Amino acid sequence: xxxxxIILHCAILAAGIVAPLLFPGLxxxxxxxxxxxxxxxxxDVLGGQMGYNSLGNILFFGFxxxxxxxxxxxxxxxxxxxxxxxGAIKVDFTDxxxxxxxxxxxxxxAVACALVAAxxxxxxxxxRGPYFAIGTLGxxxxxxxxxxxxxxxxxxxxxxMPVFPGEPGVRSLFFYSLCMAASIACYFxxxxxxxxxxxxALNAIRDDxxxxxxxxxxxxxxxxxxxxxxxxxxxxxxxxxGNMTGFIEPMEVAYPxxxxxIFMVAMTLLGGKGTLWGPVIGATLFHxxxxxxxxxxxxxxxxxxxxxxxxxxxxxxxxxxxxxxxRWPQRFGLVVDSEGAVASRENAP
Amino acid sequence: xxxxxxxxAMALAVGMAITVGTLAGAPAYAKVDGDKxxxxxxxxxxxxxxxxxxxxxxxxDLAVKMINDKGGVTVAGKVYKLEIAYYDDESxxxxxxxxxxxxxxxxxxxxxxxxxSSGTTKAAAPVTEKYKIPMVEAEGASRSLFSQGxxxxxxxxxxxxxxxxxxxxxxxxxxxxxxxxxxxxxxxMAFENDPFSLxxxxxxxxEMKKFGMTAVIDDKLPRDLSDMTATMTKVKALKPDMLVxxxxxxxxxxxxxxxxxxxxxxxxxxFTHCESADLVDKFKKGADGILCPTQWAETxxxxxxxxxxxxxxNALFLKTxxxxxxxxxxxxxxxxxxxxxxxxxxxxxGFDTEKLRxxxxxxxxxxxxxxxxxxxxxxxxxxxxxxxxxxxxxxxVVAPSKWASHKLDYPRMAGGGTMxxxxx
Amino acid sequence: xxxxxxxxxxxxxxxxxxxxxxxxxxxxxxxAAYGLALVWGVTNVKNLAQGDFVMFGGYLGYxxxxxxxxxxFALIPVAAVMYVFGWIxxxxxxxxxxxxxxxxxxxxxxxxxxxxxxxxxxxxxxxxRTVESGFKTRELFDGLVTVTDIxxxxxxxxxxxxxxxxxxxxxxxxxxxxxxxxxxxxxxxxMGVDTERVYAFTFSLNAAICGVAGVLISMIWVLQPxxxxxxxxxxxxxxxxxxxxxxxxxxVMALGLGAIEQYSGFVLGAQxxxxxxxxxxxxxxxxxxxxxxxxRQALQ
Lengths: 349, 424, 300
Prior knowledge:
By secondary structure, chain B is an alpha/beta fold. Chain B has helices at residues 2-24, 50-69, 93-106, 118-130, 162-177, 195-211, 229-238, 248-261, 274-277, 279-283, 310-320, 329-348, 353-361, 419-423, and strands spanning 32-33, 36-43, 73-75, 78-88, 111-113, 135-137, 153-155, 186-192, 214-221, 242-246, 268-271, 290-294, 303-304, 308-309, 364-367, 370-373, 386-391, 394-399.
């Protein structure tokens, strides 16, 4: 890392630590910001680096949320009894039970999501382009329906999550730190990953999958591992978000295909897909603008979101990072030998 | 690579500055602002509950307007006007939790009005509880809300297991009167797969168990329901004595239309949300004979100094909001929640949240909506639910007998209407 | 579940009821699916806002019928308005994504779907709406099976419209130009076809077809601003399973889908009626994929 880059990273880290202490009223929004950044980063693994545009990554978010909840409750109580009462059983978890349950729940959520991604990749990676997008969208919709039909986890009645054993201020900071840690871990992992041979293989699949295969890459393996990585991190924030919300149910909280599921795509496109910083910038900008303006639009907010997506993909597809690279290519270490070079790289599928 | 980071750093710094600047620098509301007391609510303006959310909001607004018009609320010798700060929770509990954090933490709201629906209230209650901010809610009826030991939540309405339980009791009564056993009654059920309707279903099942009735159909309805002909075919095949449906307005609309279209005669039919679904206007004669549980009816003999009697409220509401034909009880209970707050401010003579909580807990208030008195769990224990039947386009109270203004028309025939009407 | 199957076995007459309801509504699904296949085949744009076009058409019919026009007669003005609407959408959005990467058009139409849903919510209100056709219900088998006249009429109308479209594609200059463009846009251009006009016409025609489907839906089922996605998914299932440029396939799949929905609603419960459609979408995709895998190709 160069000196400037170290300074930058440290500055962001410092801001991340100081911000919630300076503005204790905004901790929840800051935590959501880290979640949004993680959403965009994980979506970009497939969407940007590998050229597989998924509309159903939210599936892992919801799956992780449920795995975590079941673990937390199931370690000490009978889940079926707990959910059958629709939250009418008031259970008290001791401090130790709560933390052990949460820690184990998050680990299991992450691992289970990675496994599910590996399984699904068998089926869905045979689909290319728009079929993959529609197929993943279908998978996410189906997951919501199936969870809603499953009485063991409360069906459409949902689950009331265990209550955090501490003061409200501590609770916010606790979940804030976990969200921040997950997001930063994800960032550094991907940063490292994109620098390895693996990252190059992903780009090769994006640029021409058939040729990549002809060159001897086991494309299916790469695709499977890449999706599992996305799912791993999404599972963790799913578990965290469930606990932060306090009440989970399948349709609106766990599998919000049309809100969070679309936000991740919109944020990545806004920032510029296929770059490491694009998703981070896109998510930050999106979340800030959304939190500031959203609530004043009373009803018009989704019209604005839809228009943003249309304008983004129609007129500004390269995103912020892409635009900057186009504007100042040499500063990004790109050698400009002719006008066509940038254009052809841009038009690559 | 270096300049890239410089730029990103700049972008991020600017982003952070904007966040902090706009969010922290916008103290849009304080708990009491000059001569205004500001209540806060996250209500559904978009998404699947936006219809009912709008009803509730209209109810809130009407009560605020009336209280202010009648001179506001006097606290410690000073006259205050009420005002409500709204956010749109998009009908999702995830958003409700976030927006309540925002109302309380950022906007400094200290007095909360509840969201619409049980699911969103389930997400709201832990937040208000955490910050020890009292909330008067009027739209979350699920029983599970009242078993968590919440101290700061008070509900104006009756809990959801009572919605259709009285209809089951009525079916038993009718069966006995016609020389059959109550346990012979066969019930067909269709409930939406959401926290509210599942709780209604639990209440129905409990009541059925009491009488030993059997459920011949037990369907769950999806959130985007647009067709129930398959369920209705089952109804036709199994000929139940009673059909109960709970699926917010879409459930009542779809079931109402297709029951008539398929010429199915079920002697007793009960739906929730008839008024919001505007069944009479949609289906005219086809709506006749349907039983509708309601938290409130304009024919009941309650009154209060702000709105006058229940029927005065009804007239005022219809005059103020032209797009309604019937006043949905969701609006009436919203208005009642605001009345409860106004009463609490008056009696507490101060703005301290702890004191207000204790004052709320000791509420004993007569409103146009019914009597309000909270049990230890925060639910209203003083108000019954009533069952109305649509008779010749009018909603008439038919049960329980204490409140009944009309007799039950029985049995309901195919295509709407009842035997009695047909013989006339 | 077994109880419900037993009913069907013990009283087979109820199969007639389910099939009738399913096939008659399936015809309306078929309209939306045909429009999707048309646009897909000619412009290669996969329109995710298809279901929202249907809902929008339904709402237009609803507004007209409020002003005293019988909904059946509302079909013509609604189709005309939807044609213009489709043309505007084409010029503003779709024309700019046709030549781009496929995901672009998918996402752009998805954004369009969100804008349409929310605008309808603001314009027409979130209430569930129905339009009453005022037609009678017919009874068969001593009242055990009922069928509403409006379903029969809409079935016939769908058939007539399909026939008209087939004739139009075969006989008219524009129809021939559309088919030529679908086969090879570049060659069509060389032969003097104004492909830009063909694209615009195709997309507008699709919007008009969706409008007709919407008005029919409003008289049979219900309208709600957010229900469009269900019709989009249905259209995708039908087209994916039938394949492009296969009108008989689209018809069979559409009718079949309608019937399957009814059976799953009956046997598994209403909750699974639409969930089945999503399941079928996945199955259709995997099935197509397996067919291609034999030739070592991927579905793209």
